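Example S7 (structure tokens).
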């Protein structure tokens, strides 16, 4: 009798129809994806603090210095959508591994650079392979985790890396430049890449390709050309002027190409960016959120570092350490938001709260002065903006890929990175122009004869506070616009059932 009653308990429980077994290695795969994503995010800021040292060592001019950053941004921003669709067509593991190997090789060449041309070429190649790697990593995450609770935890980790990576890049860049060499800001990528390459080779299984998919060549040409012109135009405006023909000419061509791309996507049978991906309100809201927050977040990182180092006299290492409270809160709130808040409230209140927290932090920062103390003037705003950034980045990755079929995961992931890159380019140009105009106006209004060092310090602080006011306005507008676009309530997953049916049909 006992033996008879025990027998049924020993039998495996049958799975529900259409369900797929969870990959037992999924959490290790998450660690691999996080290492790869951290490498890409770090590289957006880690070189910023190393640029003066690299310029001194390689003897290039201040005018050339911007190209070390711009070369990466141009190739990365212009190729993201193409590389995202490529991941869907040839398989995400292939593009993920290729991106890792290529990024590591380009980093090694950049670290060993013996001149300006070699360094800039390496940075452009980093951007190319980063464009291949970033959407592949996020789409792997979106297709690996199926259970809603586990998916929330996984996206929480990913969001924490995305939110905290920029600040960690400043900290790491300062430490490596101060204690080793600027070249280690490039060589450090080899460590992350080696971990991710070994992990991906051992853990990530074969990924399905899009059946019958073809590459939309006209779409690739128009969107890549349009993004290239926009990123270059905004970068040129930041270093020259909005009024120069080369600035508005590139911006006009970029807009025209992107309009042509949008029209073509609605007509072609195999679109590079299927309209169904961006016409969903939640996904569109996520892409717009990352674009707006990316534009304003630039002010937090760049001008706050300027203030700490130029005005307060902090070293690169101390500036990085000063960012740690923001980094810690960003990671914590991203994880908390995805695991606790998103399943219950959805992305809309997280975006509104995150944008308003960031706006409040920016307003708080407008109280800085020439001799402000860290605890009294910086610590509070850094913690507030860290919490706001965590809430925003915590929802973006999950919402931007919510409900998409596996064969669209790569291009949906690329759309998130494209929004962030374009937002950063817009913020760079806009806020640099605002800061320069504010400083010039302050000197003109307050100087009586030759400007004194004290007046120049006050003008610099005035330019920073002006930028922080503008950032507050951008975040406040983002709270209204993105909050209105996103649907209220928790995310629905309309793509799950079709995805499972498609997977069953393919098997």
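Recovered sequence:
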């Amino acid at each position: 009798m006992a033996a008879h009653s025990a027998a049924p308990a020993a039998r495996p429980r049958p799975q529900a129809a259409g369900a797929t077994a969870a990959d037992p290695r999924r959490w290790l795969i998450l660690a691999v994806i996080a290492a790869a994503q951290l490498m890409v995010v770090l590289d957006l800021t880690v070189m910023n603090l190393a640029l003066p040292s690299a310029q001194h060592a390689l003897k290039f001019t201040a005018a050339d210095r911007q190209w070390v950053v711009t070369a990466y941004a141009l190739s990365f921003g212009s190729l993201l959508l193409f590389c995202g669709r490529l991941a869907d067509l040839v398989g995400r593991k292939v593009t993920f591994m290729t991106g890792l190997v290529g990024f590591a090789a380009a980093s090694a060449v950049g670290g060993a650079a013996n001149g300006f041309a070699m360094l800039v070429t390496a940075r452009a190649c980093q951007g190319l392979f980063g464009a291949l790697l970033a959407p592949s990593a996020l789409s792997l995450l979106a297709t690996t985790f199926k259970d809603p609770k586990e998916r929330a935890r996984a996206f929480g980790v990913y969001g924490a890396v995305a939110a905290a990576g920029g600040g960690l890049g400043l900290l790491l860049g300062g430490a490596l430049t101060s204690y080793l060499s600027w070249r280690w800001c490039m060589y450090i990528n080899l460590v992350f890449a080696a971990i991710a390459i070994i992990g991906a080779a051992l853990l990530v299984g074969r990924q399905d390709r899009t059946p019958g998919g073809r590459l939309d060549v006209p779409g690739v040409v128009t969107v890549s050309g349009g993004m290239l012109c926009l990123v270059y135009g905004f970068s040129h405006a930041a270093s020259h002027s909005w009024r120069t023909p080369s600035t508005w000419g590139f911006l006009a061509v970029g807009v025209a190409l992107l309009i042509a791309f949008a029209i073509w996507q609605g007509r072609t049978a195999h679109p590079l960016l299927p309209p169904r991906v961006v016409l969903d309100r939640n996904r569109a809201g996520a892409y717009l959120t990352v674009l707006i927050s990316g534009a304003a977040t630039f002010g937090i990182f760049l001008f706050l570092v300027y203030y700490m180092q130029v005005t307060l006299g902090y070293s690169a290492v101390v500036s990085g350490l000063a960012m740690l409270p923001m980094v810690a809160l960003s990671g914590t709130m991203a994880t908390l938001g995805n695991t606790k808040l998103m399943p219950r409230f959805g992305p809309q209140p997280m975006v509104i709260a995150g944008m308003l927290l960031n706006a409040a932090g920016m307003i708080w920062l407008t109280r800085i002065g020439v001799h402000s103390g860290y605890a009294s003037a910086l610590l509070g705003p850094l913690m507030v903006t860290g919490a706001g950034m965590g809430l925003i980045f915590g929802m973006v990755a999950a919402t931007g890929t919510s409900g998409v079929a596996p064969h669209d995961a790569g291009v949906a992931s690329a759309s998130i990175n494209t929004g962030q890159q374009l937002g950063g380019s817009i913020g760079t140009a806009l806020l640099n122009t605002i800061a320069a105009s504010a400083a010039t106006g302050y000197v003109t209004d307050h100087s009586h004869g030759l400007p004194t060092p004290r007046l120049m310090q006050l003008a610099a602080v005035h330019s920073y506070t002006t930028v922080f006011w503008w950032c507050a306005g951008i975040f406040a507008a983002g709270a209204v616009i993105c909050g209105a676009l996103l649907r209220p309530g928790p995310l629905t997953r309309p793509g799950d059932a079709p995805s499972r049916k498609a997977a069953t049909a393919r098997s």
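Notes on this example. The chain has two domains: 25-206+272-493, 216-271.
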